[in-house]
Amino acid sequence: MTDYDAATYGDRIAEVYDDWYVERPDPSAMVAALAELAGAGPVLELGVGTGRVALPLATQGLAVHGIDASAAMVAKLRAKPSGDAIPVTMGDFAEVGVAGRFSLIFVVFNTFFALLSQADQVRCFRNAADHLTDEGVFVVEAFVPDLSRFQRGHSLSVESVRADLVLLNAAEHDPLQQRIVSQHLVISDDSIRLYPVQMRYAWPAELDLMARQAGLRLRERWADWDRQPFGPSSTRHVSIYGRSGARSQEQDRAVGI
Ligand SMILES: C[S@@+](CC[C@H](N)C(=O)[O-])C[C@H]1O[C@@H](n2cnc3c(N)ncnc32)[C@H](O)[C@@H]1O
Hints:
Layout: H1 8-21, H2 28-38, E1 43-46, H3 54-58, E2 64-68, H4 71-78, E3 88-90, E4 102-107, H5 118-130, E5 132-143, E6 154-161, E7 165-174, E8 179-188, E9 192-200, H6 204-213, E10 216-222, E11 236-243, H7 246-254
Parallel strand pairs: 1-2, 1-4, 2-3, 4-5
Antiparallel strand pairs: 5-11, 6-7, 7-8, 8-9, 10-11
The protein binds S-adenosylmethionine.
S-adenosylmethionine is lined by residues 6, 9-10, 21, 47-49, 52-53, 67-70, 73, 92-94, 108-109, 111, 114-115.
């Protein structure tokens, strides 16, 4: 697929996104942890989508701003109760093209990997850092890459089989660019629908390096939103970055960095 840009994923999936994802995975532990990290706010979500996270966060009394490239996803947000109360800047979130500073900037549900080059991901870290308050944090939730799912550069998995439809995922892997080009296929009696997803994945260590280049340091890394410790068998991570400060430089010296 050649005509894929920042809006393609959202514009294609908006019609089914909330049916597929609004409860699964349950966002309540994530919302509680983000609210605690935000303090008094304000908060910025990169890739705000249909407001699955932004709306419950705003009900905690926080000022939440979003960025998204997909008009179709933001239309779904606007159609929800209080959906008009979340200001959304339309555009590429790598730019972080909003005014002001935030106590919390976050990008969840693997959305950071929607930036399809290392250069865009580095730029996003820098721009996020520029929009943090002195004590602010940048939070990234993403999967830990698992290349064992690919055989000869491809994978095909069954996501769901029901009486009336089958959901498949077909993916192609480019290990040099760290890119995965995939399609969710929804097959029913009278149609086959394609929902394209492209990603550029990164291991946690690469994200930490991007953070350092942006003047940020890893403060904490959890295996999930319940703050379980991150370890070698963790399949995803919640990484919390804050400004490099005297305290984190001391910590670096203590571990010999
Ligand atoms: C997986 S959805 C996540 C939505 C929401 N954060 C959630 O957790 O439900 C990814 C969102 O990021 C948006 N997106 C993807 N790439 C983008 C980009 N480069 N700039 C702005 N938005 C982008 C999509 O339009 C979509 O709304």
